[in-house]
Specification:
3-stranded antiparallel sheet; 16 helices; alpha/beta; 3-stranded parallel sheet
């Protein structure tokens, strides 16, 4: 989807009959389309091909011949059984950049396992450090390991395109959820690998910065941080307790981390004395990082979210206007493409096979009769 935003011609190859699994992930649905499917499929063309059949394999190879990049997420070795793995396609089409996205990687004891975000976030340590300090491990509210792996894939694909300009050859990219999850442990991983400190759950708090978390006010939750000692001095002034900044227990972040429980108990009582709106007004212009915890309604009516153009309206062929989160990045020169709504299943099969591969109407009719395409 991100490459499509930048102008790539993206052909989404789906199973005949069912298509992408996320098409059925609901409710909620808008008409026949799941809201889940709609959120991540703009700027793609849907082609249905049964490549368990030789005629379907031929179509995929013909697409590979005229494409820069192939992205797949099958269990390692599965596509090679059909003659569509990296070794097979790279031998025929050395220019092709072949990006595999799997649960655990191309080799190793887990490589044949099915990979799903919530499972891998447990195996990769992320779930162990997510959730309240005195509660159970929690999944994140959205599939962050899935999303982050997609972002790694985008950067790897773009880097491979640049590399191909020098070598003339494509390459195989191995992206997997487990490696993404472990790489995402960042400072918690460093704490363990270098200091032997086991990761813990801190709720909204931070293991190495205090205060840096949510506080309950009289009317909602306030997120607030003091990332350095100067910011803590400012915070102490704003909450009416400047003495905190001169207390040896709290003067430095190192001391605040050591004495976190005493400091946080005090701050919790202070913040409960005023409403969320009062604290937001007090903190306005302070230079401190702060904000409310918004629900979806509040998020998509937030003036900065609206300013950043994060609600994208698309004209869908059967549903009318739909709305999805917009692209996260703006460019001063590069123009993003005029967005196209997520495709209906097989919406572009005939168009792609005719216009890209030169198939005749008679050929399409024969393929449809053979149930190679839908």
């Amino acid at each position: 989807m991100i490459l499509g935003d930048l102008g790539a011609d993206v052909i989404k190859v789906e199973r005949t009959g069912e298509g992408d699994d996320t098409r059925s992930w609901g409710p909620p649905f808008v008409g026949t389309e799941s809201c889940y499917y709609l959120c991540v499929n703009r700027n793609k063309k849907s082609v249905t091909v049964d490549f368990k059949k030789p005629e379907g394999v031929k179509i995929i190879k013909e697409l590979a011949a005229v494409s820069d990049v192939l992205v797949e997420n099958y269990i390692p070795g599965k596509l090679s059984q059909m003659g569509l793995g990296y070794p097979e396609l790279s031998a025929e089409f050395p220019h092709l950049i072949y990006c595999s996205i799997t649960g655990y990687g191309q080799t190793g004891a887990y490589s044949s396992r099915a990979g799903y975000d919530v499972i891998v976030s447990g195996v990769g340590g992320l779930m162990h450090i997510t959730g309240p300090a005195d509660g159970e491990p929690c999944k994140t509210g959205v599939a962050l390991t899935d999303l982050s792996t997609g972002l790694y894939a985008v950067s790897a694909i773009l880097a491979s395109i640049i590399a191909r300009q020098h070598t003339g050859r494509g390459q195989h990219i191995d992206c997997n959820l487990l490696s993404t999850s472990v790489a995402s442990l960042v400072n918690v991983a460093s704490n363990y690998l270098n200091a032997g400190l086991e990761g813990e759950r801190f709720g909204t708090a931070h293991p190495s910065i205090v205060p840096y978390q949510a506080f309950q006010t009289s009317s909602g939750y306030l997120l607030l941080g003091a990332g350095n000692d100067s910011q803590f001095q400012t915070l102490a002034q704003l909450i009416g307790h400047p003495e905190l900044a001169n207390d040896d227990r709290y003067k430095t972040n190192k001391a605040r981390v050591k004495n976190r429980l005493d400091l946080l108990r005090f701050l919790e009582k202070v913040f409960q004395k005023k409403s969320l709106s009062d604290w937001l007004n007090i903190l306005d212009g302070s230079g401190l990082p702060y904000g409310p915890i918004n629900n979806m309604e509040q998020t998509f009516s937030d003036p900065q979210v609206l300013n950043n153009g994060m609600i994208q309206k698309l004209d869908h062929p059967t549903l009318g206007e739909i709305r999805v989160p917009g692209p996260a990045v703006r460019y001063s020169v590069t123009k993003l493409v005029e967005p196209i709504a997520p495709p209906m299943l097989g919406q572009h099969t005939d168009q792609v096979l005719k216009d890209v591969l030169g198939y005749s109407k008679e050929s399409l009719l024969k393929l449809r009769q053979q149930k190679v395409i839908q």
